[in-house]
Write a structure and sequence with these properties.
By secondary structure, this protein is of the alpha+beta class. The protein has two domains: about 1-95; about 100-149, no CATH class. The chain is about 25% helix and about 35% strand. Strands 1, 2, 3, 4, 5 and 6 form a six-stranded antiparallel beta sheet that branches. The longest helix has 24 residues, at about 125-149. The chain is elongated and about 60 Å long.
Length: about 150
């Protein structure tokens, strides 16, 4: 599992696995030995799946021994997630390199090359435009509701 996680970090590839009964989809950021329990740990930015400990997206540490059904996906993520710490462990063995200037080919982004609308979440410009249109309609409806009050 260590080799798979190391390759995923170095290749900036998304990973899925099951942890404490929850399916997880993460951007792996660092692999090393945790501070408190001295166990091999994956430091990752969870972007999908479920969590018992809070919202998504969010930074989390996963004890490797509790991970199951690990899959390294072909999907590559772009810039490092917000709040990225390259040395989360006293014994960090591998960590993400500085953010690339542009996401991998085929990955979504903003209007400018290399700009992602939501860090680490690849979407197309068409998807972003549809989301912006839906948000505008919702804000308009909210404004009309307040005017009536």
């Amino acid at each position: 599992m260590r080799d798979q996680l190391t390759a995923a970090i170095e290749g900036r590839r998304l990973v899925t696995f099951t942890y404490e009964g929850c399916a997880r989809r993460v951007q792996p950021a660092a692999y090393g030995v945790g501070r408190r329990k001295g166990k091999e740990t994956l430091h990752a930015y969870q972007v999908g799946g479920d969590s018992q400990s809070g919202g998504i997206p969010h930074w989390r540490n996963f004890h490797v021994e509790k991970m199951a059904d690990l899959a390294v996906l072909d999907e590559v993520f772009g810039p490092n997630p917000p709040g990225y710490n390259p040395t989360p462990f006293p014994e960090t063995q591998v960590a993400l390199a500085p953010s690339p200037s542009a996401p991998a080919s085929g990955q979504g982004g903003g209007d400018k090359q290399g700009e992602q609308l939501i860090p680490g979440v690849p979407i197309t410009a068409d998807q972003a435009a549809k989301a912006a249109e839906a948000a505008g309609k919702a804000l308009g409806a909210l404004g009309r509701w307040f005017k009536k009050r």
